[in-house]
Amino acid sequence: MTAAQMAEMASMSEVERIALAYEEAAAGDARRALLQAIEDILRLEAKLTTAERRISYGYVRGALPTDRDA
Fold it and tell me: Does the residue 48 lie in any domain?
């Protein structure tokens, strides 16, 4: 990577860097990059839903610190 490319990357927002990574992974195919990003988001959303459900049912191991622990 050249110094100019590094400077350009440094000036990009996090969203732009993520979009560029998806585009590069899709070999420049914008449609494929968008589909992959959406698929990833839906997969993460499903994982979050599962985690939230487990937490609401008290599935989480461990405990929150209490005043006595401090």
Answer: yes
Question: Does the residue 2 lie in any domain?
Answer: no
Domain span including residue 36: 12-57
Residue pair 26/32 in contact by the 8 Å Cβ criterion: yes
Instruction: Tell me what percent of the residues of the chain surpass a pLDDT of 90.
Output: 56
Is the pTM higher than 0.85? The answer reads: no
C-alpha–C-alpha distance, residues 28 and 31, integer Å:
9
- The mean pLDDT value of the chain amounts to 86
The amino acid occupying position 68 is R
- 27-44 confidence digits (pLDDT tens): 999 999 999 999 999 999
Angle at 25 between CA 23 and CA 27, to 5 degrees: 70
Helix boundaries (H) for the chain: 3-11, 14-25, 30-56
